[in-house]
Amino acid sequence: MMIIVLIYIMIYAGSALMGYNIYRYVRFAQTVRKQGNWSAERRIFNIPIVLLILFLIGYLVIGILGHPDIVMAGILFGGSIFVFVMLLLMQRTVAKIQENERLEAKLAAAERASRSKTFFLSNMSHDIRTPLNAIIGYTTLANREGVTLEEKNGYINKIEKAGNQLLDIVNDVLEMSRIESGKMELEPVRINLCACVEEAGDLVKAQLAEKHIQFTSSCEVEHEWVLCDQHLLNRALMNLLCNAGKFTEEYGSVSLYLTEENAGDGRPAADPDQGHYVLRVVDTGIGMSPEFVENLFTPFERERTSTVSKIQGTGLGMAITKNIIDLMDGTIDVTTEQGKGTTFTISISLPIEEPEEEQAKAQDEIRFDGRRLLLAEDNVINLEIASMLLTQAGFTVEHAENGRKAVDMVATSEAGYYDLILMDIQMPIMDGYEATKKIRSLEDAELAGIPIIAMTANAFQDDVAAAQEAGMQGHIAKPLDVQKMIQTIQEVIDKN
Predict the structure, then answer these.
(1) Which domain holds residue 427?
(2) Do residues 282 and 255 lie in contact, with contact meaning Cβ atoms separated by under 8 Å?
(3) Cβ–Cβ under 8 Å, residues 281 and 343
(4) In what helix (H) or strand (E) does residue 475 lie, and over which residues does it extend?
(5) One domain, residues 200 and 317
(6) How many distinct structural domains can be found in the chain?
(7) What's the CATH number where 172 sits?
(8) Interacting residues of 272 by C-beta distance below 8 A, sequence separation 6+
(9) Would you call 359 helix, strand, or coil by DSSP?
(10) Averaged in consecutive runs of 10 residues, what is the pLDDT profile of the chain (496 residues)?
(11) Parallel, antiparallel, or unpaired: how do β-strands 214-220 and 253-261 relate?
(12) 164 with 212, same domain?
């Protein structure tokens, strides 16, 4: 009696296990089909399920109508376990294969990125050395004996252009680093969009004129004043315009158009507080191949042709531009044909912000005669340049070589002795942040309240925020833009 019970336990347990095996195989087959194109193997996948169902029917027939003995029951039960184990092994094997495929895909992507970065570093080495060579070479020429004033001025102008070119390259690399770290954020302010477009055009006119490239621009909008991050929008436009100039041959043309579109053509009704703007940069340059267009916005990518290879560039400009427009919830499209030119189209919606009535302020030369300034700076070259510029603006300049020295000079001075402090951030002994906090904690309220402006190469937005958090009222980025420096100083002094 016990043997019969055992026999039927094995038969029905095996049947249940086989039913579970069928369920698992069906799920397994569905999963595998989703991982790739298995249409050719569809019949092969159907064979095991048919066999498994036949086995299950056989088990049930034997269990219900047959008279199985202990040997048959054991074989059937063992067969169910065998199928279960085989399915388990198959699933694990396929999982390993899929994991290997994923790893191979990641490896291939990493190798592509490595090749792109190697190509980028090669370009960077060339692109950085070119302006450096110009700076060193023209400096040597300017220092020769017998050089006329006119020649020296010409060399200095070329050194300035090379320096700006080098700064653009560094800015591209740093901007891309910010994007990849997720630190780029919008800082919308009220701007005149037409003025922004005109400013971008003015900045490239001279560069284009050197190649005899005709530049035209137009602005056809109903609402000129909007809320927008002017710095980032300008950066995107400059990237597009400079690229257009680089890849357009002599006597070609580059155009910049700004239009405002009303809602329509299937788009939702216009928001009265939003303006939909379209910016187009059109050139008659060398164009791009369809293969390269697919990777146009990939960092470090540049088209590899004999013409392009002669043109300087980091391969980051388009990636930065795309990220800026994405950050603004806009779109950027490209239409191009080799030998005929390229058109970039930016579509973006911006909040309309009508200007407030403001009293115009005269922008004559700003002077600071009779004012005393403390300059905390440890770099001798930076100190010399800043001191000369500030002295020319009328300041009496005193110097502290580190943050602790600056704190001591302020703490031992009389109230009102210093009108302003320009504070470098990265200094030995005590950095600018810590020095500012020490000054702000002085017992004398007037000394503790001296206006402090950061003057530093830490130029990202989070650096500006860190300076404000430490107690500084302004931020001046290095290398120094004299006009912006003077304007920032004037604004801070006016507020205080």
Answers:
(1) 372-495
(2) yes
(3) yes
(4) strand 474-477
(5) yes
(6) 4
(7) 1.10.287
(8) 352
(9) coil
(10) 70 74 75 61 62 70 64 65 71 73 83 70 64 82 87 86 76 67 74 88 81 91 89 86 88 93 51 86 90 76 50 67 90 91 93 65 69 92 88 94 94 92 92 94 93 84 84 88 88 87
(11) parallel
(12) no
